Amino acid sequence: MKERVKSLILALLVVCSLVQSYFLIYRLPGSDPVVKTENDYIKTENMGQEAKAEDMLYPSQIAVHLGEDRHTVFYPESAFYNLIYSRLKGRQFDGFQRYPVENIDWNEIRSRYPGIELQFGSGMPVALLQKVMLIASDPLFEGESISKVLIYNAENEDQVRVFFFSSQGDVVYEATKADLTVQDVQQQVDFGKEWVPYTLTNGYYIPEKPIGMVETGLNVGTFTADQMQSSLFFDPSITRYIREKDGSEIYTDSKRSLQVKQNRNWINYTDPAAPAAGENNPGRNALSAVEFVNQHGGWNGAYRLKQTEGLDEEQHTVVFQQYYGEGQFGAFPILEISSFHYGEITLEMRLGTITAYQRSLIYATEGFWTKNMVDLPGGDELRDRIAALDKESEIVNLYPAYLPSLAEEGLLLTPVWAVEFKNGATRVLR
């Protein structure tokens, strides 16, 4: 009898030991296991900061229509921009109706009636806008991507008109139930009365006075290739090193590839064999891209979602553009140029899974080595410069931006005018 009891106790101890070992290896349900699979990545510490997708969902600029063909423009992080956008994020939009965009002369609306216009560039999926604005669920509307939101007060009407423009350019959606009054809109319009006057020209805005910006030289550091390897490869110790004739370096584990270019300041990571995990949904892809960057390098500054669009039914591109600002002047985008890759983080996706990742390894540290006020030209001087580009392609946008360059002291951000063409190309006006 005693021997049987001893055997039962011993068996119970063995079972308890096995259960304890299981939880030590795999931890509690819902937490990350210690044992990693080959498809897992190792999160690298002490690199960039993590960010929330909501912090990157904002208009590239807000145009204010004053009536009588008068306008002004506010840029991100400026006081009136923040005030207008924060108020709109607390308003409800519902009751959507769809119309062909050509049914209304929109330039006449912008010129004639007081209102505000949020511009989202190439487009923002409605599913993402719903994270920052109170947009009601609507099957007719939710699959769209929005390039602009126009809010205005019509004559002899006590109701505000609100239109969401599809990025496809063919339809517009009116929110017939908007939690806005005529007085709300007029108050926001009044913010622009004493600001720099702009002229609406062929769909974009030209300031009639110079625009002040700060040319800034930032101190910088650089993420190392070893840090990125640790972040992007399951086991960095088994990667092979290859040096290309053009001076670029490649690290590969036969499945993934990490190419380090531009004097070790820029990477192009590819994982073509990554298993597809979902569908080609623009909103979900953008959220997945944010989480991927959080885990693999982080964010070295403020960013805005610039692009999320499909190349075909399976392939998708997500681009985040870095912004830099100085106090009252607002924040402006940093342009990515072919000769110096800085300012954008780009991810390629296939059915919801990241297959490519491009970013700069340079990041700004504390302090600066130069600061100078610069006035970008406006009025006729700017028109003359733009006229020289009219023959290249149709111009769809004009905005102030920073042109980055690398000096011995660090990163120099030079204020410029950026001209965006209909074909997607961008030219710099110095």
UniProtKB/TrEMBL annotation:
Residues 3-423 form the Regulatory protein YycH domain. InterPro entries: YycH, YycH/YycI_2. Signal peptide: none annotated. This is Two-component system activity regulator YycH. It comes from Paenibacillus haidiansis.
